[in-house]
Design a protein that fits this description.
By secondary structure, this protein is an alpha/beta fold. It has 8 helices and 8 strands. The chain is globular and about 45 Å long. About 40% of the residues are buried.
């Protein structure tokens, strides 16, 4: 479903797509786990939808492999302080309108390429607010790698997010991704690492969408009963 978030406090609106599980309408009191997914450079809010994220989520929910959850896919637009627009504006809106859980363990953030850079910045700048961060073929925004020690310094180990990093063997960003893992190792930050066959192309991400969603959903609770 396509929609647009408009708020007087923002200079521009935020178009977004949202996946709602089949049970969403019939259970208005439930609080759903939520995944925020960011697109790559020069793409739009349709990218993850085009990669098959909605269809994969439906399959996984129908099979019982994951609980019902939401996917929010915003479109990054110029003229917005993106990290502020997401954390201080869009996230509270999603939680109030779409019954998304405010429990950090039920809130995940991820992206591909530049979108992974935004997921890294927003997820770690607000370390402890997201239970999981997924970086798919990441293009980390400067100088965020070097701010990571500051962002995570005062976060208790049990409040640190789960972290996933994957990239294709022929991806031009592979060296940068490996350098990121070196920094993570130096900081003793645990992460899941995958080096897969492939390049920095849609076919690569589409082939792993279901795997990504399954990983994000690990530890999510069934929304029955409401929760935070």
């Amino acid at each position: 479903m396509s929609a647009e978030f408009i708020e007087p406090g923002l200079p521009r609106s935020i178009p977004y797509r949202i996946f709602l599980p089949p049970c969403f309408v019939e259970h208005p009191s439930w609080k759903f786990p939520v995944l925020y997914l960011f697109h790559g450079l020069a793409a739009t809010d349709s990218e993850w939808d085009d990669l098959g994220a909605d269809e994969a989520a439906r399959r996984l929910i129908a099979s019982g492999r994951v609980p019902p959850f939401l996917i929010v896919m915003p479109w990054e637009r110029r003229g917005l302080e993106w990290d502020d627009a997401i954390w201080n504006h869009l996230v509270p809106y999603v939680e109030s309108v779409y019954h998304a859980s405010s429990d950090p363990s039920q809130r995940a953030i991820g992206g591909l390429s530049r979108g992974a850079g935004w997921a890294f910045r927003i997820g770690f700048e607000h370390a402890g607010a997201f239970g999981s961060i997924g970086l798919h073929s990441p293009a980390i925004l400067a100088p965020d790698e070097f701010l990571l020690p500051v962002w995570t310094r005062d976060v208790p180990p049990d409040a640190l997010p789960r972290l996933w990093v994957d990239i294709g063997e022929r991806d031009s960003l592979k060296r940068a991704a490996l350098e990121l893992t070196t920094i993570l190792d130096e900081l003793h930050l645990p992460y899941t690492w995958h080096l897969y066959p492939g390049d920095h192309v849609a076919e690569y991400w589409a082939s792993h969408v279901e795997e990504y969603l399954t990983w994000y959903a690990e530890g999510w609770r069934d929304p029955v009963g409401g929760g935070p």
